[in-house]
Every structure is written in structure tokens, then in C-alpha cells.
Amino acid sequence: MPAALDPFRITDKLDEDTLDVMIGRLEVRGHHPYFAKPLSDYLDRMEIDRRSAVLDLGCGTGIAARAIAARPGFEGTVLGIDRSDYLVQAARRFADSEKLSGRVRFECGDSHALGLGAASFDAVIAHTLFSHLDDPAKVLAEMRRVLRPDGVAAIFDGDFASLTFELADAERSRRMDDAIIASLVTNPRILRQMPRLLKDAGFAVDAVMPAIVTEVGTADYWKSAVESFAKLAPKAGILSEAETTAWVGEVLDASAQGVFFGSSVYYAYVAHAV
């Protein structure tokens, strides 16, 4: 299979139509209970409400940053960083509409090389970032650098090597799973490597919190994902638009017939610096 160009890795280079599709998916996904509950759970585990300065890396539309700022017990501030100015502008609009702009702000930046001072934050999160990174170890080093000695870090993402959508033909299902994963994810096994990466970066793991997102019969959470793939997946150069459209049609038809199966495992790692 040829090398892919994960669109989530190059958000600063995508056209606005593609980014609008991405924004729609990020918002629908982020507000769905399947995603909102794991976020709330790992924020609780971080004791985020008592943190005064929080950094959200690869913030996208600011789903995680806004969720933190909106918590009734949170009185600190949140800084969201993303490489795409278009996504940063969207995050600012959402925060303004939710009357959160006093507690959260968003800036363009590269998580691999943050222009931020050492020991500046007492909590750092990376919410669905690491599966799309060029150099995960470098980003972990930056997280460790900007974190205060008594701070806490969290990484949440999909174990996208487990992502699957079953079609009528099992072999075609396997081939299309592989192609979709390769088209949309740079590091599908990154969460399996995270114990080693965190240790090497100077972190100790406090908690690992799994979440399985499986829908059988009819797609709800996965429906908007599959629909967004029609626009996003061909950007990687592995699947053509026609191939992707045909696959999307098959998956959505399975849902309409009540025979859908879609699943992926997600994990949150909560860790502290050592």
C-alpha cells in the first residue's frame, strides 16, 4: 500500500471546503455521548477543576478546551494550540457563542516546537492528536518541558488499528478497513506504544482508561464519521473518490438495513512527570 497523506496531519494545508467537513465531524463527534463521557472521565481523573493553567495541544475546534472551560468547578484558564489557523478561528467562534472566551483562548502553533516557557502549565492534554503526529516523541518532550513539576498530562486517542466496519464480503471488509485506516491515520498503533513513549519522555502512568465505541444494527456515532470519510479519505491518495463513495454507500446501506457493524477502541492515558 502506498504512503498516505493523513489529512488530519496537514490541516494547515487543506482547502476550506475540506476543513469545513472536518469541523462538522469534530463537533458532532465531540458532543456525542460516546466521546463526551470519556473526556469527562479523564478530566475528572486529572482533577482538572483544581488546575489553574491548562494547555490543549492539537485543539482543533476546541472541543476539549471548551469542555474544560465550561465545567462549573473550573476557575483556571485554557490555551488551545493548533497548526491550522482555520480551525483556530472556528474554535474561537464556538467559544464566543458559548460565552467561554474569558476562560479559553486559541492560538496557532506547532505541538512539536511550542513557543511557550518551561513549566508554564499544571495540566497538558492531547485529545485525538497523537495518531496524526509526525514525531510523537518530540511532542511528548514538549509536553514534559512545559509541564510544572506537580502537573498532570493526559493523552486520549483511538487505537485505530482496531477500527473496523464490516461489509457483506469479509475479505473486502478487511481490505477497506486497511485502506481507510491508512488514509486517515498516521500512527494507528500509537496507543499501544504509549507506555514506552511516556516512560522515555519522563512520565509515569497514573491511569489507563479504555472506551470501546461499537454500534451494531444502526449507525449513529459512526454515521457522521463514515459520511465525512467520503470527503477526507481520498485526500490521502490511497482510495479514489469513486472507491470511497462506493464504500460509504455500502456502509450506510448496511445501517439502513439494520445490519451495520462498526467499532474502535479508544484509550486515555493520565500521567505525571518524574
UniProtKB/TrEMBL annotation:
Pfam families found in the cross-reference section: Methyltransf_11
GO terms, biological process: methylation
Signal peptide limits: none
GO MF term list: S-adenosylmethionine-dependent methyltransferase activity
Assigned keywords, A-Z: Methyltransferase, Transferase
Domain Methyltransferase type: residue ranges: 55-155
Keyword Transport: no
Entry-linked PANTHER family: GERANYL DIPHOSPHATE 2-C-METHYLTRANSFERASE (PTHR44068:SF11), ZGC:194242 (PTHR44068)
Protein name listed in UniProt: Methyltransferase domain-containing protein
Species in which this protein is naturally found: Rhizobium fredii
